[in-house]
Amino acid sequence: MTDSLGDEAQGGKNEEATDETAAAIGYLLRLLSQRDYTRRELRDRMTRRKVPEDAQHAALARLDELELLDDRRVAEAHVRGRAHRKGRLALRRDLAKRGVDETLVDAVLDPLDEAQQAQTARQVLEKEAWRFRAPEVRKNRAKAAAFLNRRGFTSDVVRTTVEDAFPWTDDLEDDLEDGRGEG
Length: 183
Hints:
mainly alpha; 3 domains
């Protein structure tokens, strides 16, 4: 008789674990119906909901079986949707925050070479040109450089883009040499 009670108790635990796993899968499917998530983002969401570890593992494994989890796809979509307004550094930071593996981040960002980033930086500056209309070239250059840095462009891209967008004039160079351009 104790054997059957032990079996019933064990069966109850298995049912409970199955119910928790099913609930976790349902929750994850609802999340994934809204947008793509990385594996870590989904795990974090389940942890916040206090889903037991074994149910988390089983739910993620089931979504893997169904081929619904793909960090590469999520990372590529993230980069594709933001590469026209952000630099490599910002995209790398975004993907790391989302829990994408470093080697995968490198692979996804590899197509964004220096020339592409310089073109994107120029387009971003052109679109935001209204921000850089101060009469002093020096102020415009400083504001543009800070703006591009915040957008995650590398220092080389920022420097060349700002130099091209706001060239020094001969009068300004003379003022700087004389000390009159400081202010």
